[in-house]
Amino acid sequence: MRTERQMMTGKKDKGADMGFLSDIFKPGKTVYAEWFRQYGLTDKELHDLQDCLLSMLSDILKLCEDNDICCIMNSGTMLGAVRHQGFIPWDDDIDIMMFREDYEKFVKALEREQKSGNYMKYELAVPLVSSDYYFKVPKIFNKDTEYCSINYMGNSRYNMVPIDVYIIDQVPANRFARMMHYLIYNFAFYASSFCLDHLYPSPVIEKESRTNKELRRYYKFRKALGAMFCCLGGIRFYVGLCERLGNYKKNTGLYDIPSDISYSGMVSAESFYRDVIKCRFSGLEVNVLRDCDRYLKRLYGDYTKIPEEKDRDFHAAYSIRV
């Protein structure tokens, strides 16, 4: 991932003459932050966003507690709980994870509560189920908010503050099969993201591209790839492939989050994810893995060291209302 210093200077990686191609498979919000720094979150906007996310998390945890559902903090949210006892100060999202059976219980519990008039400000968006929803993981959106990511401005259906829900599933036991499983998963995910650029181009990026040659070349190439993949299966095919690979049916006794394994390498026995402890997170009591040290080292290396300001992620949004 590009450091913040690289984003501030606007310099690309120098490893190849292909220039913009080195960014094609990087997270959109990381790449576009380089060209859209005028939309960076102010300190107040970030603080208000974190307060909104914390309120959402509190509601989610209550629903889980009332229905005997194990909800575990994931990635940067777990790091925040362990290192800061709350948000990483510059973080702008919350990630949670659940075993698939807990996730299915959560879906039913939310539906049941909403039929009774509770939790009505929330919308659970599910791949291939929710209309026009083409992300790789479910998200819980707060319908009373607005949060417009620059790269998703073309599809305004889900321009709301989300919490990502990652599902812990079984994975292949054979190492080679597992590698192919994850390669195909990530290929399908990137194919679907290119399709999104083709089907729902961002008017903000399109406008900026008229005067920014480098951005125009980058975005035009992404849309061209999207047009090709739309012809070679289509966006629902690639999202569906992610879903089928994620929901692995064979009983192998090995578990992980399929969308994360390519960089985390956290294939483990079920007991690793079942063994949780309580930790404080901005006044809430949350679940983290007992062996969070192993988990966080795989993701972040020396996670106890607070990165210098120049190396922290930069967050931008076209508009925000919380």
Task: Please provide a written account of the structure.
A hairpin with a 2-residue loop joins strand 9 (276-281) and strand 10 (284-289). The chain contains twelve helices and eleven strands. The protein is of the alpha+beta class. The chain has helices at residues 4-9, 28-32, 43-66, 75-84, 100-115, 175-199, 203-209, 213-231, 235-246, 261-264, 270-274, 292-300, and strands at 72-73, 95-99, 122-125, 139-142, 146-148, 161-170, 254-256, 268-269, 276-281, 284-289, 319-321. Helix 6 packs across helix 8 (213-231), helix 6 (175-199) runs antiparallel to helix 9 and helix 7 (203-209) crosses helix 8. The chain is globular, with a radius of gyration of 19 Å. The two termini are 28 Å apart. It has one domain. The strands form three sheets. Strands 1, 2, 3, 4, 6, 7 and 8 form a seven-stranded mixed beta sheet that branches. The chain has a two-stranded antiparallel ribbon with strand order 5-11.
- Helix % is 40-55%
Shape, please? globular
Number of domains: 1
Strand content: 5-15%
**In terms of structural class, how would the helical and strand content be classed?**
alpha+beta
For the sheet with most strands, the description reads: 7 strands, mixed
End-to-end Cα distance, whole Å, is 28 Å
- Give the ordered list of helices and strands: HHHEHEHEEEEHHHHEHEHEEHE
Computed over alpha carbons, the radius of gyration is: 19 Å
Strand count:
11
Distinct helical segment count: 12
Low-confidence stretches: 1-18
Mean pLDDT: 88
